[in-house]
Amino acid sequence: MRSPIAIFLVFLSSFVYGQQDTIALLRPNLSVFFSDSIGQNNGYRAIQFTALREQDEREAIGAVYVMDRRMIMACGARDIQELLMYVPSISFGSDVNDAVGLAMRGLWVHEGKFIIMINGMPINELSFGTYCFIQRLSLDNVSQVEIVLGPGSVNYGGTASLGVINIVTLKAGQRDGTSVSTNLSGTRVGVDRQSVGLTGNHYLGNSTYFSYAFNGIKGYRSVGLTADGVNWRDSTRMSSEEFYMSIERKNLKAQVYQNDYYYSVFGDQFDVQMKTSNADITYSQKLGARHLVNAQVGYIRQMPWNIQNTVDFNLINSNTITERIHMHSQISSKLGRYIESNFGFQMYQVNSQRLSIYADRTSENALRVADGLRGIGLFMEVFGRFKLGTIHAASRLELSNLVRPMLAPRLGYSLIRKKWNFKVSFAESFKLPTIENFYLGPEDGVLQPERNSTWDIEFGVRFNQHLNWRVNAFQNKIENPIVYVFDDITYDNYLNRPRIANRGAETMLTYMHSAWTIRAAFSYQQLDAGNTDLPEVRTPREESVQGLANVLAHLVLSHNFNRSFSLSTTLVYKGDAYNYENVDGADDLTPVRYPAVYKLNLFAHYSPARWSDFEFRIGMLNVLNQRDFYLSPYSVANYIMPTSPRELMCMVQYRISH
Question: Of 225, 336, 377, 465, which alpha carbon lies 20 to 30 A from 286's?
Answer without folding.
Answer: 377
